[in-house]
Predict the structure.
Amino acid sequence: MCEWLRIQGRGRFAGRTQAGLDMAWIWMFPAAGAVLLWAVSLGRILSPSAPYSLPPSSRLPLPLRGDRRTRNVLLVLAHPDDESMFFTPTILFLKSKGHSIHIVCMSLGNADGLGNIRKEELYKACATLKIPAEQVEVLDHQKLQDGFQEKWDHRLLAELTMEQIRLWDIDTIVTFDSYGVSGHPNHRDVHHGISKLLHENQQGNIEAWELVSLNIFRKYSGPVDIWLSSLISSSSKQPMCCLVNCSPSRTFEAMAAHRSQWVWFRRLFVRFSSYTYMNMLRKI
């Protein structure tokens, strides 16, 4: 009897072990496939030696106007670190084509009382991206304070942006779309402020592009999203393009300059975010 029980116990143990091995093999194949897809996608991104646009025939690089050799581009942000977390592929691409990048940041990012520190970090990040400090403006308006509960006045945003446009002879704007990538209300208000500016200056000679917000799966797919982004950009009826960052390490360098914000979850975000590797821009 005891011998029979021992044999039965060994049989059950062997069965569980075999089932565990079978489950391990089942999970191993998709994991290996995901790693291979990540590697292939990253290889496609890194293969060129300079930032590039998909499709190649897109409206970017921006056509020159008149006898000017470059365009003056204004990147409109809500907080310090937006340029590094979200817009690095756009910045690097436009810089590689010789266009002049100007930045206006609508707040100090003072929600945690670190506004002055974050302002200096923005200048350092821009230095890593080869944007001169004199072409970076950080505002601290009492009606435009950082915070999820803060409602920013769209007309005021439009007026402050127009001041920068006149100061730097800006002809192209790049900013957030209506969702603002993360859904942050300050990001969304910046978009609505730019939309108001464009609506009230329809006769002006200003072109504006918005950074397309992605769903959570695409947002955290890293370089893998290049396949879908390039397909959508190529087939879209709207003017749209995918700008590819062939030097993702530049994003890490820029974001690391924001030392007060360079905490573990943002390190993970920069590593896995598709915005590190590419930007989809759509004309407003």
